[in-house]
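tool=predict chain=A
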Amino acid sequence: MVSDPAGHAGRQAWLHLVLTPGLGPLTALRLLAALGSPERILSSARTALAALVGPALASALTRPDPRRDAAVAASLQWARQPGCHLLALDDPDYPRALLNTPDPPALLWMRGRPEIFARPALAIVGSRAASADGRRNGAAFARATGNAGLAVVSGLAAGIDAVAHRGALDTPGGTVAVLATGIDRIYPPGQRALAEAIAERGALIAEQPPGTGPSRGAFPRRNRLIAGLARGVLVVEAAVRSGSLITARLAADLGREVYALPGSIHAPLARGCHLLIREGALLVESPDEILADRAFADLGHATERAGGGGAAVSTAGAPPPAAPAADAAGAHEREGKLLAALGWDPIDPDTLMSRLAGAGAPQSPDGAGAVLASLGALELAGRIERLPDGRFRRLAPP
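tool=predict ok
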């Protein structure tokens, strides 16, 4: 653990790795898979690293960088505070659920109680401008599922996120808030008191280092962590063009269950939930329906869902799996469309998704998870780079 000097020394290598500009989670995983540990990565020759990640990133990893060194020192100092933790992939307290995702962060900054990650989790998300009924429903579902032992995960936003955190705060399951900023930068600022309560009784986690402010590109990455931490995602209220729907679709792409509360056909904030239900999400009217679903079978309340299909995308009538040659052709076509949408200027994920979807459409037809996976593959192939602010930039061929 980071409280002893040896732990701090080990975390220094992890920090050097993840704070190197331009090196994203998938690239870090590729290096770790090839070389085994951050210490072995950093002791490798530049030529060996270049063979794995290209000369630019190899140079960034091995050359002196005073700004990176200062950020490493600041994080080590931060981790010496009570209740502050640096959770690397090799840490026994690292959230196991994230290891079942395509790009788990190599390192998380965390405040609170690490043992909460051993509990099964439900994400509860929804509109920032929630109705009174939506707020009551979000709090009630969080309280009931938290009392059943589920950790309630959300994103600390106003509206549904906030009432979900408050509803679960004092339950046996507790609550986890995932930040899109650094661990020391609460956004929105009005949530600071709630964040402190969560840090005391639950957990705050961040993928970005201390001092990182909010940026547009960070929120989709935050949403993928919310989806990855949980066995299922409940959407309480959401418009059709909503970050909550991105979280739900990321969850579906990860094989998590998706649940949605229905509402009036005249309510704009019910339309996103109705869209998810049409796509295959489970319509729920009480917390018991979530607790009885197959995602939480080990709690002793499971029932089989009719049809046995996927969480949020119905497979009824789906065509048979494509042959390998067709898969390769399809992947090549998707890559071409993605590169065309990227253009040559830096672009944030939200803008990219809008370009892919076309005018007026809420999401890429390929799914948010598929797009993020394709971006990771292009990054590994040296076709694009991830900028420190979360945007992507296409690279010219060598």
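Residues 1-6, 302-329, 359-366 have pLDDT under 50 and may be disordered. The CA atoms of residues 156 and 177 lie 6 Å apart.
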